[in-house]
Amino acid sequence: EEALSEIAALPKVELHLHLEGAAPPSFIRGLAAEKRVDLSGIFRPDGTYAFEGFRHFLQVYEAATGVLRSPEDYARLVRAVMEQSAEEGVVYSETFLSPDFCGGGDVDAWRDYLAAMVEAAEAGERDLGVTLRGVVTCVRHFGPERAKAAARCAAETAGEWITGFGMGGDENAYEQKDFAWSFDCAREAGLRLTTHAGEWRGPEEVRAALDHLGCERIGHGVRAIEDPALVERIAEDGIVLETCPGSNVALGVYPTLEAHPIGKLRERGVTVTVSTDDPPFFHTTMREEYRRLARVHDWDAEAFRDLARISLNAAFCDAATRERVA
Ligand code: HPA
Ligand code: ZN
């Protein structure tokens, strides 16, 4: 137990966190009350988010996001999320941001939202000691045309703070290659690339993400384990998996943490990192992820220190930021 407390208290680096998905339910309820929006349908009596399965999760997520309507709302959200991260011992966090929810893909509106978020992140860094960076994501089930608008927003604001471009949403909608234009646009703007793959569909999705989109990180990617040749390839090429074990168990991708392939992937030389995805939705936190993994695997404190080093190395920020955080 002492070893577990030591492990849970270690400094952490999180690479896969959806900003709206990290919103505490109380924060969303507060905004809903201010704006007189009835969101009672998305909460359980105990105040937690209510959903059954992944599709419904996405619907509840989008309903909650609907009360975030201004740059100021997003600035408050950034602060609330950074406070949580600080409590969890997170020192660096890469957060998925969607222009679709921040101005609907309009570049000028996106600039206003982003400016408010960056200002909140800078204040949060001073007060809380957490460094935040943004990865712009398009939403797969919104389709390739809207993804182009998100990519243009990303390209227009690429720099020290917006470090990457990626895709979330429903993996069963469209194909990775349908989004190649958007990923090319982001790459040409100097952005680093990641996409959700190999969570709801199998290893062929991970291959498509590498072959058609040129991603160097994969959101989840865990079902690569079903194809040994692919596991070898991602290990050799240093492709980084942003695994979110608690999320996978909460949504039923794997029945238990014991059944989750993170240990096997790591043993086969794959670069794995650990994140929470949408922590209040999946009843997890970074400390909780560390505690559960330490219970199931025989990873000692040094293994978790290694995990943080590997994760920081896989971060999309510049070298100066990495050195400052380390
Ligand atoms: N997975 C995929 N898309 C998402 C998620 C997620 O956990 N959260 C918000 N969009
Ligand atoms: Zn995700």
UniProtKB/TrEMBL annotation:
GO MF assignments: deaminase activity; hydrolase activity, acting on carbon-nitrogen (but not peptide) bonds, in cyclic amidines; metal ion binding
UniProt keyword annotations, A-Z: Hydrolase, Metal-binding, Zinc
Coiled-coil portions: none
InterPro entries, sorted: A_deaminase_dom, Ado/ade_deaminase, Metal_Hydrolase
Keyword Zinc in record: yes
Gene3D superfamilies reported for this sequence: Metal-dependent hydrolases (3.20.20.140)
Entry-linked PANTHER family: ADENINE DEAMINASE
Family note: Belongs to the metallo-dependent hydrolases superfamily. Adenosine and AMP deaminases family.
NCBIfam families listed in its UniProt record: aden_deam (TIGR01430), PRK09358.1-3 (NF006848)
Protein name, UniProt field: Adenosine deaminase
Organism: Roseivivax halodurans JCM 10272
